Structures are given as C-alpha cells and as structure tokens.
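Give me structure tokens for this 461-residue protein.
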Amino acid sequence: MATVTRENIGLLNDKITVKVAKEDYLPSFEKALKNYSKQANIPGFRKGMVPSGLIRKMHGQSVFVDEVLRTVEKQLSDFMVNEKLEIFAQPLPLPENDSRQLDFNTPHEYAFAFEVGLKPDFKVADLANASLPFLKITVTPEMVDEEITRLQLRHGNMTEPEMVTGEDNVLNVVFTETDANGQEIEGGAHKENSLLVKYFAEGFRPSLVGRKNGDVINLQLSKAFDAKEREWVLGDLGFAKEDHSAADKYFNMAITKVGLVEKSPLEEPFYKTVFPGKEIADEAAFREAIKEDIQEQLDAQSRNQIYDTIYHFLLDKTEINFPESFLKRWMQSGGEQPKTPDQAEKEYPSFVNSLKWTLIVDQLVKDHQIEVKPEDLRDFAKAQLFSYMGNMNMGQLDIEQPWVNDYVERMMKDRKFVEDSYHRIQTDKIFALAESLVKKDEKPVSLEDFQKMQAEHHHHH
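Here you go.
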C-alpha cells in the first residue's frame, strides 16, 4: 500500500516522500504490457500475436519504469489535492531519486522524494490608510491656443498659393539621391513625400520661402532636418534611422506642389464640427470645452502616475515571506530555460518581485470579488475596434451594427485575444479599486515638471 509523508525542511519549504509497494504498480504494469503486445508491429509476427515473453524482454524495463513513475506522480498529486497544499510552481524531484534502482525483474517497494515551496499566508497592505500624491497637471492658455490652432488647421480648407510664404505651407516633394554636385545617382533612393515647412530645421526654412512648383533644391538631410524629423525622413527613404552616413547623403528635392491650409474661422459651424454633441455658440465656451478635453487627457497621465505609485506602495508595504532557497533551485532546474546558480542569484530579486505582485493581485481579486465578465470582454473588443478606426466618438456611432458584432464574436473565439484582454481588464479594475480606496493628496504641477519627474522615475527604476 502506498504511503506519503511530509516533513518541513525550511521556511515554507517541505519534503514529500512517496513510497509505492509492488501491489501499487504491478497491475498497471502487466496491463500496459498486454496493451503493448496488442499494438506492437514486429517483423515475423502478425499484429496482436507477438508472444508476451518477447514483449517483456524487449520493452519490459521501459514500461516498468513508466508505470512506477506514473504511480508515484499520481500518489503525489492526490496527496497535495487532499491536503489542499498551495505551492509555487511544480514539486522538484530531489537528487536522491534514482530511476536506475527500478528493475522489473526484482520489483519491490520504492521511495521517491520531492521538495515543494509553499505559498505564504499574508495580508495586503491597507490601501485605505495610504495617502498618495496625485499630480494634477495644470492646463495653460498656451496649451489651449495650440490645440485650437491644430483643430483649425485640421478642419481648414487646403489652398494652392503660388509660392511658399511661411512655416505653415505644405510641400509635396520628390527626393532623388545625388552626388555632391547634384548629379543623380543611378539606383539611388527616390521617394515622394509631403512635408510642412515647419518640419525642416529652423535655419533651413528661410531658403524655402519664395519657392514655387518646379523648383529643385539640393540638400543634405543632416543640415535640412533636426534629429527627430531626420530619423522619420530617413526611414521613409528606406535607410536605418541611426545610419549617420545616410544622413550626410545629398538629395535633389523637387517641389511638385505648394499648399496652405486656411484655418477654419472661430465661428459656430466650426464649434459644432469639433463638438457635435454640445451647444457652443461663442469662443469663450469653445475654449472652455477645449480646456476640459485637455484636462481629461492630462488626468489620464496623472492617473497612470498614481497607479504606478499604488503599485510600488503595495509591493513595498505588503510583507510576504518566500521559500527563497527552493525558488532559487526551481529557477535553476524547473523553468523553461535552466539557469546557473549565479544567474538564479542575480535574477532572483526581479523574479520574486513579479511573484509577489502576482500574489497581491490574486488576493485583491479574492478579497474584493473582482470579476471580468463576458460583456467586459465584448466592450473591450468594441473599444479596440473603434480605436483602430481613429479617434471617433463612439457615442455618434451605432455600435450594434452587424459588422461590429461579427468582429466582436470573432475576437471572442481568439484565445490569445481573450487571455490578453482578460488580464488587461482585470488589471484596470484592480487599479480603479485601489484608486477609490486611497486618499489622494492632490498637488498641482506643470506638464514640463510632470514629464521631468516621470523621466527621472523611469531612469531610477
């Protein structure tokens, strides 16, 4: 009769020993041999008519080892289920186990030992007692002015003036690679593009003023564009953005069209185009609506910041013990990629932090009964679909159209989409819950200072 014993060998670290007697595995061994003989294809014998003695001689040892180990694994699994053991990863076989001790000619009692790491009992840090900074980004008049100008250009009318007059002109151009003397290079880069004059380097822009359709300018990308725009142009021309030699290449830039967007006037039709669901009749109300929109976008950035603060609060203030020695040994042999002791030691802090966060999430889900329902997944799929289509206002669209529902049902059958979306939605719900529990210490901050603090924070981590 099989027996299973358990003993503690360290912090949250137990040894489980499984002993199996002959009567535990011999019946299944004999049955497996019979099944093997029925299926075996051996030259000189009809299928199913191979003598059992030959099967035993040829395959007895391997079948015997398989059946003993299968019996041991079942006993171990049943024990952990019955004892309701919550463990990390999988049990690790101990070095003392040696399958070479198994001999089907002399069956007897065998013992196999395993090491397990036990999940700890713990309490998540009390969010209700946390007072965390909420950096409220201030919307400035300059931000409002810049957004209004962007919207005026977006909804304006394109005209075709005779020549370039300033940085708001749009140029349709053709880039053709040349040598330093402006002679076209056979097989060189050749590409059409459309650029605002303001995309060119500030010192280069004056050379464009007064240019007309048909004009050709020989230039070097390194002198015509600053770093950010140059990388974009290089990529469009088929070069690697970090290719410094490409940046020094010469090109003829032929102007094929000069355009200029006439800004949409600040009048009621424009206000209704931008905010179709609002009654806005004057510039003051329009500016206030723009300010609210910008504030909403900036608050989303602030919310990401407080979510990050909540994450670190929960990690730092929640005390959890771990079976460190077991987890390091598991990292060396139990994962997908075996690691050396030095690698396991180096990667352990990051590994255990991730493990700690997983335990905290699981506990919060359990404590607050956080659920992700099928309708959550469907709503997420719809939102994702409309995000692909651009910044549309979903309130203006019939989201129950057949083609939308067809897309959603198709995504609901995509296992990867469902799994990824499930974790994304669950994470959003956890942080929304946490935000509702903490006390937010609101602090006004400029966008520049906020971005600087974010950059320093990411650099630190």
